[in-house]
Design a protein that fits this description.
- By secondary structure, this protein is an alpha+beta fold.
- The protein has three domains: about 5-45 and about 240-310 and about 420-470, FAD/NAD(P)-binding domain; about 110-210, protoporphyrinogen ix oxidase, domain 3 (Orthogonal Bundle), CATH 1.10.3110.10; about 310-415, Alpha-Beta Complex (Polyamine Oxidase, Chain A, domain 2).
- About 30% of the residues lie in helices and about 25% in strands.
- The protein contains 15 helices and 24 strands.
- The protein has helices at about 15-30, 75-80, 120, 130-135, 150-160, 160-175, 185-190, 190-200, 205-210, 235-245, 290-295, 350-355, 380-395, 420-435, 450-470, and strands at about 5-10, 35-40, 50-55, 60, 65-70, 85-90, 95-100, 100-105, 110, 115, 230, 250-255, 260-265, 265-270, 275-280, 280-285, 310-320, 325, 335, 345-350, 360-370, 400, 405-415, 440.
- A seven-stranded mixed beta sheet has the order 8-7-19-20-21-17-23. Strands 12-2-1-16-24 form a five-stranded parallel beta sheet. Strands 5-11-6 form a three-stranded antiparallel beta sheet.
- Strand 13 and strand 14 (about 265-270) form a beta hairpin.
- Helix 1 (about 15-30) crosses helix 15 and helix 5 runs antiparallel to helix 6 (about 160-175).
- The radius of gyration is 23 Å and the shape is globular.
- The two termini are about 20 Å apart.
- Its cofactor is FAD.
- Its EC number is 1.3.3.15.
- Keywords: Cytoplasm, FAD, Flavoprotein, Heme biosynthesis, Membrane, Oxidoreductase, Transmembrane, Transmembrane helix.
- It is found in: Cytoplasm.
- Its main location: cytoplasm.
């Protein structure tokens, strides 16, 4: 007798959903399991925040532009899709912080802002003498007595003082979340620092002991050529295209929303906006937390997820002829201290960091605007955002004339804020579902990490959890 197939529905076609669907089908083939996978995406395209524009020889990322090589899951995904040959590393170069109207290099030996070499730190123009002396107090301060969660701002100010936090640590650590360091959860964003303090007391001494010594690889001119990030030669959307192509025919339903979700015996019934219904043995919800909360609102579940705030951001890519921009600083870009009177929060010199993105004789800049408390700029018209960004960049670089073209992308109420207590909120939501909808799992950027590898890890973990429940004797 042919065994009845188990139907697994993946809700959301961003990187988490794509990974979940792909690895569920991969497990079914390799373990000979009777599984049918359906991926439902409300938009007419897959990939979520991953969006690549290919224009006039440029490769322009609207959303994320890379991922950390040391987090292996994205690279493994590329290998499993057979596109690892398309991976490229970023070109290394000096990164800067914009402080008091000046681009100051991040001191060599800094690990996420923590100095492991005192010489470059003491010689840095980022801090006053009193700021340096206060930061050096970390060498002598005792461990914190706080056992539970706390804000990044509270944790780092206690160890290093205000100046180092505002001029270096905050721009480095809060950027990916577009968050407020005084509200961001230490345990949910950078728990490694809590562990370093717990084990070594001093963060400076602890990071020096635990950071592997790097032997830079050199090119023919003796310059370092190996970066810490990967992307794809033709843009990050390469992995989205490959994943969609390799999902089994009939897997993906695009442009379709789930109207309601209910229990039917041991299964879950999904009603779609096209009039169809799907009876699922397991559901992996990879949408943002607000969409997940709305999906279960009629059952009075996941109300706590609404406490996870979001913020709006925008990216502004500007293409120029090479002679239109004069850069007197070497490097690949800069972050902006909140103390400055600037609307931009960061700028990548894309043509330097990712040479494969930009044609010969051209320059590509990518600026970022919007963060918690400063979202209004995201709602302005494109031409106004471009004007503001060019005005800010004109204070730092010499720019002649208008760009050849610009690509402005808004992510409205899209960036989840991992505030103090985030882990408890997520655990409570999952516990609610486990009790009322035990075959529904949550995964994605709203929960256990916003980076692309973190999202893939969550998708794969949900797959293994579902398989364990569906096929346990």
């Amino acid at each position: 007798m042919i065994e009845q197939k188990k139907k697994v529905v993946v809700v959301g076609g961003g990187i988490t959903g794509l990974a979940a669907a792909f690895y569920m089908q991969k497990a079914a083939r390799e373990r000979n399991l009777p599984i049918e996978v359906v991926l439902i995406e409300a938009n007419n395209r897959l990939g979520g925040k991953i969006q690549t524009v290919r224009r006039d020889g440029f490769v322009v990322e609207r959303g994320p532009d890379s991922f950390l090589i040391r987090k292996k899951s994205m690279e493994i995904f590329a290998e499993d899709l057979g596109i690892e040959g398309e991976l490229v590393r970023n070109a290394t170069g000096q990164a800067h912080i914009l402080v008091n109207g000046q681009l100051q290099p991040i001191p060599p030996g800094s690990v996420m802002g923590i100095p492991t070499k005192m010489g470059p730190f003491l010689g840095s123009g980022l801090f006053s003498l009193s700021g340096k002396l206060r930061a050096a107090g970390d060498l002598f301060l005792p461990r914190s007595g706080i056992e539970g969660d706390q804000s990044l701002g509270h944790f780092f100010r206690r160890r290093f003082g205000r100046e180092m936090v505002e001029n270096l640590i905050e721009p480095l650590l809060s950027g990916v979340y577009a968050g407020d360091i005084d509200q961001m959860s230490l345990q949910s964003t950078y728990p490694q620092f809590y562990q370093v303090e717990k084990k070594h007391r001093s963060l400076i001494l602890g990071m020096k002991k635990t950071t592997p010594k790097q032997v830079p690889q050199k090119d023919g001119h003796g310059a370092s050529k190996q970066g810490a990030f990967h992307s794809f030669r033709n843009g990050l959307e390469t992995i989205v295209e490959a994943a969609e192509q390799q999902l089994e025919p009939g897997t993906v339903k695009k442009g379709i929303r789930i109207e309601s979700i209910s229990k039917q015996g041991d299964q879950t019934l999904l009603e779609l906006n096209n009039g169809e219904t799907v009876l699922a043995d397991a559901v992996i919800v990879t949408t943002g937390h607000m969409a997940a909360s709305q999906l279960f609102a009629s059952h009075g579940l996941l109300e706590g997820l609404k406490e996870i705030q979001t913020t709006s951001v925008a990216t502004v890519a500007l293409a120029f002829p090479a002679d239109a921009v004069v850069q007197d600083k070497e490097g690949t870009g800069f972050l902006v201290s909140r103390n400055g009177n600037y609307s931009i929060t960061a700028c990548t010199w894309v043509h330097r960091k990712w040479p494969t993105t930009t044609p010969e004789g051209k320059i590509l800049l990518r600026a970022f605007v919007g963060r918690i408390g400063e979202e209004a700029i995201v709602d302005l018209p494109d031409d106004e955002i471009e004007r503001i960004v060019l005005e800010d960049l004109g204070k730092i670089l010499t720019i002649k004339g208008k760009p050849d073209f610009s690509v402005i992308t808004r992510f409205k109420e899209d960036r989840p804020q991992y505030r103090v207590g985030h882990r408890e909120r997520v655990d409570a939501a999952r516990a609610e579902l486990q009790k009322e909808f035990p075959n529904v799992k949550l995964a994605g950027a709203s929960y256990n990490g916003v980076g692309l590898p973190d999202c893939i890890d969550q998708g794969k973990a949900a797959v293994e959890e579902v398989l364990g429940e569906l096929f346990t004797n």
